[in-house]
Amino acid sequence: MLTVCVLGLLAGRWTGWWPSPYPDVVDLVGVPVLLTYAVWMRQRIDRDKWNAAHKDSPRPEMSLDDLDGLDHEEFEFAVRNLLRRDGLLVLQRHL
């Protein structure tokens, strides 16, 4: 709902239909809100596509005993794989 309001304000401001006493504020607030919304929607669409493509694939499972037996590096990789399994974005850091 906020995005629709911001889009309406920006459209009114840019077309001259709604003259704002603070046009710079409308631009400085409205444009980042719309860009944030666009990025969020893109990520949501990508996640939904990924979930649809992988809904029937097997999900690797690990017990707590399996995790206890791992060294620190294997544990990090196991947690990364579990996060990926659950559809979360995992950023890799190179040291």
Strand content: under 5%
End-to-end Cα distance: 42 Å
Instruction: Supply the number of helical segments.
Output: 4
| Structure classification | mainly alpha
Major sheet summary line = none
SSE order: HHHH
Integer average pLDDT: 76
What is this structure, in a nutshell?
The chain has four helices and no strands. It is an all-alpha fold and 95 residues long.
Provide the descriptors you would attach to this structure in a database record:
95 residues; mainly alpha; 68% helix
Structure description:
The protein has 95 residues and is mostly helical. Helix content is 68%, strand content 0%. The protein contains four helices and no strands. It has helices spanning 2-15, 23-54, 64-68, 72-85. Helix 1 (2-15) packs across helix 2 (23-54). The mean pLDDT is 76.
Which helices and strands appear, and what pairs or packs with what?
Blueprint: H1 2-15, H2 23-54, H3 64-68, H4 72-85
Helix pairs in contact: 1-2
